[in-house]
Amino acid sequence: MTSLRHSLIFRLALGYGLLFLLSIGVISSVFYIGTAGLLARDADKQIVAIAHQLEQTHDRSGDAGLLQAVHTLLTDDKDVETEVYLLLDPHGNKEIGNLTSWRLLPGVNDVLTNAKVQRLGRDSTSRLLVHRFGDGSTLVVGRDLYEQHQLERTILTALAIGGALGLLLAVLGAALFRSQLQARIAVIQHATHDVSAGNLNRRIDVGEAQDEFAGIARDINRMLDDINRLMDTARNVSNTIAHDLRTPLGRIRGALEEALQPLSSPDGLQRAAHYAIDEIDTLIGVFEKLLQIAEAESGVRRQLFELFPLRPVLDDLMELYQPAAEARGMRLRVEVEGAPIVRADRDLIANVLANLLDNAFKYAGSGALVRLIVRQDDKRVHIVVEDDGPGIPADALGRVTERFFRVDSSRSQRGNGLGLSIVAAVVSLHRGELRLEDAQPGLKVSIFLPTT
Ligand code: ADP
């Protein structure tokens, strides 16, 4: 199990959580600045309005009227916790007010400032507006900021607690997220460890799940099936090669041994040598076909692909196969629609068609009709080689492209079970599609080749 620090899932989930938290933080800051700013602006407006009223009272009713008005404000039981009033005579002596200590900056007039004062004997930071009248007397109107600061502190504390809780939740959520996903990954890991330990039949238990992990697990299972099949094929191929080599080699050896007997004639020696050469040629043929398949599967010949019309290739084939068909009492018919063009390896395509025609000739029997049909649509060229012979039994249809596979009933015919393997390898080299179907009766081989 990867440590939390190295876990990509944990880091992603945590990153997402932190991003979320950051956005909440930004929203909260805007909210905080908006709320606190609004409160402060409201308080300022109120101070300015009261100061303005008192100035008007002074203009209207003189010092006595102002004194009376301030007295009324101080005793009206409104805003008792926050109101600040101070009236000083021209000599700076307090006439009325609830400030017990103050320090007013000289020259500051009609401007709102924050100042440290004592209000009713208690230290206070207050917002003050100082107005100096023409006769030298001074009016101070203000507001204790204690409550406002208290509110701001409360909001900040709430935001800090919320942020800390959010952070905790983000970390816990990321850990939970990771443990959930880790459990899903562990199922896959256990299976792949088992497979690498040699248990190639082990598969990941997917159940009915349809999520991304189930998709990956199914892909891996499919891949393991393919690997198993390939290994079976490889095993099968090497067994068959060993077997197919041993029999003819044994025969060659027997013939040569017999020819070397003291009583054998020069004719017998010649016959044995010819026999050995024929058998060895057949073996070389098998190896050549195996090499052709390997070359097609390696994909190197893709570099030789060219765009070419199929018709000349078909004409050449007809020239070659028509006489053979007539000699065997078979009918060979070619039907080409339009002028099909493919991007392919010309020799390989000719080889594939020759293999299919050989098979049709070999297995369909005399009197059979063999059709070679070619047509083209927007994206693909469709080639069909069809005969009306005995065809291939349904249970063998899926296996005839395996190397060395032959239907038992065909063993009387010469062959080595590599022709259709070459066809399949060449079609897949061209990223095409090969279909083998029952033509009822006979075999229908369809090849779809991309045109670009
Ligand atoms: P080979 O012909 O050398 O045996 P192929 O790979 O070409 O090998 O064919 C594999 C097997 O498929 C053949 O042995 C035969 O049993 C069967 N087969 C192929 N083509 C036909 C056909 N046209 N009709 C009937 N059976 C066929």
TrEMBL record:
<dbReference type="InterPro" id="IPR003661">
    <property type="entry name" value="HisK_dim/P_dom"/>
</dbReference>
<keyword id="KW-0812">Transmembrane</keyword>
<dbReference type="InterPro" id="IPR050428">
    <property type="entry name" value="TCS_sensor_his_kinase"/>
</dbReference>
<dbReference type="Pfam" id="PF00512">
    <property type="entry name" value="HisKA"/>
</dbReference>
<dbReference type="Pfam" id="PF02518">
    <property type="entry name" value="HATPase_c"/>
</dbReference>
<dbReference type="InterPro" id="IPR036097">
    <property type="entry name" value="HisK_dim/P_sf"/>
</dbReference>
<dbReference type="InterPro" id="IPR005467">
    <property type="entry name" value="His_kinase_dom"/>
</dbReference>
<keyword id="KW-0418">Kinase</keyword>
<keyword id="KW-0808">Transferase</keyword>
<dbReference type="InterPro" id="IPR036890">
    <property type="entry name" value="HATPase_C_sf"/>
</dbReference>
<dbReference type="GO" id="GO:0016301">
    <property type="term" value="F:kinase activity"/>
</dbReference>
<keyword id="KW-0472">Membrane</keyword>
<keyword id="KW-0902">Two-component regulatory system</keyword>
<keyword id="KW-0597">Phosphoprotein</keyword>
<dbReference type="InterPro" id="IPR004358">
    <property type="entry name" value="Sig_transdc_His_kin-like_C"/>
</dbReference>
<dbReference type="Pfam" id="PF00672">
    <property type="entry name" value="HAMP"/>
</dbReference>
<keyword id="KW-1133">Transmembrane helix</keyword>
<feature type="domain" description="HAMP">
    <location>
        <begin position="179"/>
        <end position="232"/>
    </location>
</feature>
<dbReference type="InterPro" id="IPR003660">
    <property type="entry name" value="HAMP_dom"/>
</dbReference>
<feature type="transmembrane region" description="Helical">
    <location>
        <begin position="12"/>
        <end position="33"/>
    </location>
</feature>
<protein>
    <recommendedName>
        <fullName>histidine kinase</fullName>
        <ecNumber>2.7.13.3</ecNumber>
    </recommendedName>
</protein>
<feature type="transmembrane region" description="Helical">
    <location>
        <begin position="155"/>
        <end position="177"/>
    </location>
</feature>
<dbReference type="InterPro" id="IPR003594">
    <property type="entry name" value="HATPase_dom"/>
</dbReference>
<feature type="domain" description="Histidine kinase">
    <location>
        <begin position="240"/>
        <end position="452"/>
    </location>
</feature>
